[in-house]
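Exercise: predict the fold of this chain.
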Amino acid sequence: MTMPVAAERPNAPADAVPSRWRWASWPRSAHAGLGALTIVLAWYLVAVFGFRGSGSVPTPFAVLSQVISDLGDGTVWKAIGTTGAEAAEGYTAGNLLALAAAAVVLLVPVLEGVVTQAAVIASCVPLTAIAPLIVLMSATSSRVAAVVLAGMSVFYTTVIGTLVGLRAADRTALDIVAVYGGGRWARLRKVQVITALPNVLTALRIAAPAAFVGALFGEFFLSGVDSGLGIMIEAAQIHYGPRPLWALAVLSAAVAGLAYAAAGLLARLATPWAADGTTGGSA
């Protein structure tokens, strides 16, 4: 007697979780928002259960109230502008020097070791060691130390990012330029620079908050100056207590974050092809 054969059931998908609940399918803004919420919650728990007695860690709500109050003070805006100007000056000088150094390496490859070592030294030298020396060699009331530290904070990132981008050029495109009589400079200008733009702009985006932090740190060592976020943070630590100190720290982090976001927006506008993984170049 022949037994009836049951119809085969289609195999259930290995992942039965709806796509809308998958973490990888969430937009970046959702990831960032959830991360920020987690940090704020952890901060609140630490403030309430860890430092309630001493008050050295105020709650996020207390700090937010202080930030709103500070933003109504023109002195804070002046300090942000002062530190931002130092960071912008160091960012510009440091990145221009880094881009020039990377171009020199492409044109004169024998200098790669020298340039790479200089970038490593700029990254590894403790800023706490170099800042007092710069102040010592500067005039009173000079802000050179803050500008130099901002420049040092971006040099390594931009040099390495630029070199990686320049070396990522398509070999075929380089050969075509060479066949048509183009030399090393033509290959750099027509192919390598275009291909390297996404990497260069990514390095510049990372360098933006680094320059601000470098300038902020440099202000701790200045003498004869009375404006800047670093100066205000130092004064708050000594005279004003935890809430103003935390508020200034949050403001500094917010400014650095805005610098990163602004640089990222410029990068997306300048290299729209990078979003889909393509590269550009012309012979």
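Check your answer against the key: Residues 58-270 form a domain with the MetI-like fold fold (CATH 1.10.3720.10).
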